[in-house]
Amino acid sequence: MNPTKLITDYLVVGAGAASMAFVDTILAEQPNATVSIVDKHNAPGGHWNDAYGFVRLHQPTLLYGVASKQMEGTWLKLCLRGVLPWQHRASKEEILAHYKLLMDQWVASGRVKYYPHCTYQFDQTEGNIHSFVENATKTTRSIEVRKKLVNGVLGECRVPSQTPPQFHVDKGVPIVTPNQIFDDHLANKKNRSGRKHKNKVDSDKRYVVLGCGKTALDTVVFLQQKMKVSARNIAWVAPNDIWMLRRSGPGSPWSWGDALLKCNGDPDKAGMMLEEQEVFARLTHAVKPTRFRFPVIGDEELEIAQKVKDMIRRGRVTAIEKLPNGSCKVSFTESEEPMIFGDNYTFVHCTSPGPFNDNHIRDVFPSENTINLLFLYAPPVPISMSSIASLESRLQNGTLDMDFARRLLMENKDGAQSSDDTDVLNAILGSYGISIFPEDKLEMAKHHMEPIKTLAVFLSILDKDPLVGHKWLKQNRLSFFSIPGFKGEVCENLHRMIEAKDNFRFSDEEVDKLKLLAEKLQPLQGM
Questions:
Q1: Does residue 412 register a pLDDT over 60?
Q2: What are the phi and psi torsion angles at 166 (to 5°)?
Q3: Cβ atoms 145, 10 nearer than 8 A
């Protein structure tokens, strides 16, 4: 028999970083709202449940988690441990413990219902009645949603432990994930406890690391730093060289869009400029990076990664075949000549796309009863989701500046208001598709400048007074604006776009919108 029907204001699918940040702000800004969370994992934290054991946040913990509670703990306790607050980077265990504590507190408050190890049925909705399946019992539950369904899994990270290689691998090929590397290292460490030559089992092995993203970087560092594998025993297949954000540098994820704007959309000039400013770093000066996907790296990590000299730049792997003599043949997209690796090599699969999961949905508010949790700004993810929750809360209580929103949409020239508030909000608030990579350099530059315009839209419509939005960002621990001395230069960047309109081939309509935004945000000049 189907259990009693459930009722909630917001039904959130997923309990990862995006959903947790959204729910936290909803609970804070809508004191009477109730939330139900359906998630496939057994514990909150999304992909962090599946990540490799040696993973840490790439950016400071200061900007991660939820707005209402510090993930890094009190600054006094950190300082007593000899850790500066802005240098703390949470481990997998710390992240999961933080989210579990939050969820426990929310559930105890009575405002949140949590359904772990359940599958939401996207194709089984009838009006405002939704359903999900309890995976353990196969029981289907119905739930009435009074306000909105919130899809928090569109940006779900695809990690190696959950995503097989997207190329052929023969049976018998020794290929492992970073998770297995970590688990094997712990097992070997335990077995060697108290013996001499503690690192011999690990250090004698040879590895081929597949991938050029942050997971591959982490793995290359872990192999050398913790497992004591010599850099000479590591081969690294890197299809692309990438720009990396220096953790010790003066920049932020916003730096890329700002630099593209200042360099008239030339990504090569923008990258070189940021490198000169010590914002960007690269593995080697012998190869010019071709892209930036927001990885963050420390100086020590970079130095360790650069010790690997056997860099294989032949494009992506297309197949790994097992040969009769036990060796493995690796084929590539950009080379007709395969490579042969002896039977003493282990391949490490770091080729999963992570957050670049080919999701091309761009609508944040697609209907009056649905919200999609998508990036508004450059990573990290939580501030975008907290911003969406604040927009939703003010949409509910009627305090958004919808008059100005309609001006941006150019709908009120004759006084008509043909679209409802949700349609207008969705039309002017495009998400930042981090999985979209235009081939044309100018279009690519314009794409990466979208977060600048989106931030301007957010500040201009959150309230009739743009200082309210600015204050909200400064008081939100997830925002770079909360960092003392940080200046967003939103107004200045809008004027730069207007001045460079011909270089970027902005349409007259785009320029008109930029001028409207610049006029509305004039009080933020210099902030």
A1: no
A2: -95, 40
A3: yes
Give the pTM: 0.96
3-state secondary structure 64-108: CCECCECCCCCHHHHHHCCCCHHHCCCEHHHHHHHHHHHHHHHHH
Q: Domains of the chain, with CATH numbers?
A: 6-151 (3.50.50.60), 169-241+282-349 (3.50.50), 370-524 (no CATH)
Residues 429 and 423: beta-carbon distance below 8 Å: no
Backbone φ, ψ for residue 220 (5° rounding): -60, -40
CB 514 within 8 A of CB 497: yes
CA distance 255 to 516: 24
Closest Cα partner for 99 from 160, 52, 155, 57? 57
Residue pLDDT, tens place only, 423-482: 999 999 989 998 888 889 999 999 999 999 999 999 999 999 999 999 999 999 999 999
Question: What residues does 141 pair with on adjacent strands?
Answer: 132
pLDDT given for residue 78 in this prediction: 86
Please name the residues in contact with 44: beta carbons below 8 A apart, sequence gap of 6 or more: 15, 16, 20, 37, 96, 99, 100, 102, 103, 114, 116
How does the average pLDDT of the chain come out, rounded?
94
Q: Is residue 376 predicted with pLDDT exceeding 70? A: yes
Closest listed residue to residue 329, CA positions, set 316, 343, 350: 343
Please, which residues have CB within 8 angstroms of residue 496's CB and are 6 or more apart in sequence? 261, 262
- Determine the Cα–Cα distance for residues 487 and 492; give it in Å rounded to an integer: 10
In angstroms, the CA 204 to CA 328 distance is 19
**Interval 30-76: pLDDT, tens:** 999 999 999 999 999 999 999 999 999 999 999 999 999 999 988 88
pLDDT digits (tens, 9 = 90+) for 104-117: 999 999 999 999 99
Going from the C-alpha of 168 to that of each of 121, 162, 319, the distances in angstroms are 32, 17, 5
pLDDT tens figures, 285-301 = 999 998 999 999 999 99
Angle between helices 450-461 and 490-499 (to 10 degrees): 130
Tokens of 81: 């441990």
- Dihedral of the alpha carbons of 382, 155, 249, 63, in degrees to the nearest 10: 10
